[in-house]
Fold this protein.
Amino acid sequence: MYKIIFSDIDGTLLSGLRVLSEATIQQVKQLERKIPFILVSSRMPQQMYHLQRDLGIEGLPLIAYNGGLVLNGDQVLHSTTVPFQIIEELVTLNEQEFEGKVHISLYHNGEWYAPQYDQWAMREEHNTLVAPTIRPNREVLAEWATEQKGAHKLMLMGEEELIERMFQLLNEKYAQKLQVYRGKNTYIELSDIKVSKLTGVKVVLDDIYHLPLSEAMAFGDNYNDLEMIEGVGCGVAVDNAREEVKAVANHVTLHHAKDGVAAFLKDFFKH
């Protein structure tokens, strides 16, 4: 029997309206913490806390920034950032090759800095219910240089044609240093090459629950979920998942808009 559950958020756990459905809330609450339910996301922690509250799993560990930051309450279990030098190179690349037209949001733990309050910042705020701090990339870099800080995640957003060009360039220049993940045609997420959702899952299993991967269940839909779905004992893809994710999953449940996670939990645990 599986003793712990990990779930991606966007496109997996949330409904088509990007909220938690009542069915999902009830199914997770019925686990009664006998089986910990751990959120795993590219989101920052502040964009996950309200979901933990609604699900009744406040205080449980969470895996943010695609594994770049793993928290257990206020305790940092793991932290890996994109080095400052690479961030500076990317900002320069945007200025020189793209006339600064690609929106680069910089994230570190609970901080989100957007260069301007444009359509991209507004959309992300609408989707995640967290507002950015508006500061030019260069201003943030100047501060981080003195603090010797890196970014847990960079989010690059822009028109599809620009993002396609940027995606190609990043894969040419940084394939050995960065996880370059394109969740949408207008978005690129960057984190350090050493982390993934699966590395985050391993931290939680090893440091907190002392369980093997074989006793874990995980839900996901997108490319950044692939390693996790393949690596755990029971990987479940929602019906809207990428075909590559479905191919490595043990099960395929309903579409996220049809409460696929809740449906699988109800059937599997016979609530």
